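Fold this sequence, please.
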Amino acid sequence: MKLTSARIKAGLAAMAVAAAMAVVLPTSPAAAADCAQAWNSSTAYWGGTTVSYGGHNWSAKWWTQNEIPSTGGSGVWADQGSCGGGTPTDPNPAGFVVSEAMFQQMFPNRNSFYTYSGLTAALSSYPAFANTGSDTVKRREAAAFLANVNHETGGLVHIVEQNTDNYPHYCDTSRSYGCPAGQAAYYGRGPIQLSWNYNYKAAGDALGIDLLHNPYLVQNDAAVAWRTALWYWNTQSGPGTMTGHHAMVNGHGFGQTIRSINGAMECDGRNPGQVQSRVDAYQRFTRIVGTTPGDNLYC
């Protein structure tokens, strides 16, 4: 059969369409969701409200205030996926498992002396702290340390020991180096209330700071204060049998950290109210950092 010119043109057009349909064109990536208004610790949110935090949008399941958006805690927040480009931002550039927002939630009434930047600056002195083992272990150790700090300082309120009558008692004159800053100069200071001339000397020697001659640095420099607390936590067993760091990374439990800090005064039934105060703070802090407290909470 002889094809007419019109039919040939129609056939060629149909073949062109089919060829075009066979070409797989590259697809554009889906646009990332816009970020909702940033979460604010002081704002109350009703169920269904969406906020952004850490590069993700989060939807509140019920009323909440001052609870950081995460998949942990009470479960109030539901993750709606990444936003603002699809790359989650790190809410804590220092890499510490406790972000600044978590720190603020733990210590909403803290003294301005106890800065988060001072804490993160001190971490380099003991890099194994809250950085050993699984993510759960890291979070538990950070929570345990901060729970004990909370108890020792009344929620990071007190920089120095409040009972001034004790001040002259912290000079052990039997030590060859004595008390060059004065007999009453070695009272409790900082997050774990460093006291006694021999502890100031030992901490200073370990950190490369002359705290024996200048113990006042612990109450005047936030990073130094945090470093002395981490020195005790990571290297001293006190009245216990292990350091706080060892207790948490090797699964002995929070109770052993209490023993290493003030076991002679609180453990074995001596002061159950004080022990309970520490445990309550630890349980609250583990919820904030998104983990569980584990076993062996008491000493």
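Residues 1-31, 86-93 have pLDDT under 50 and may be disordered. Residues 77 and 271 are 38 Å apart (CA to CA).
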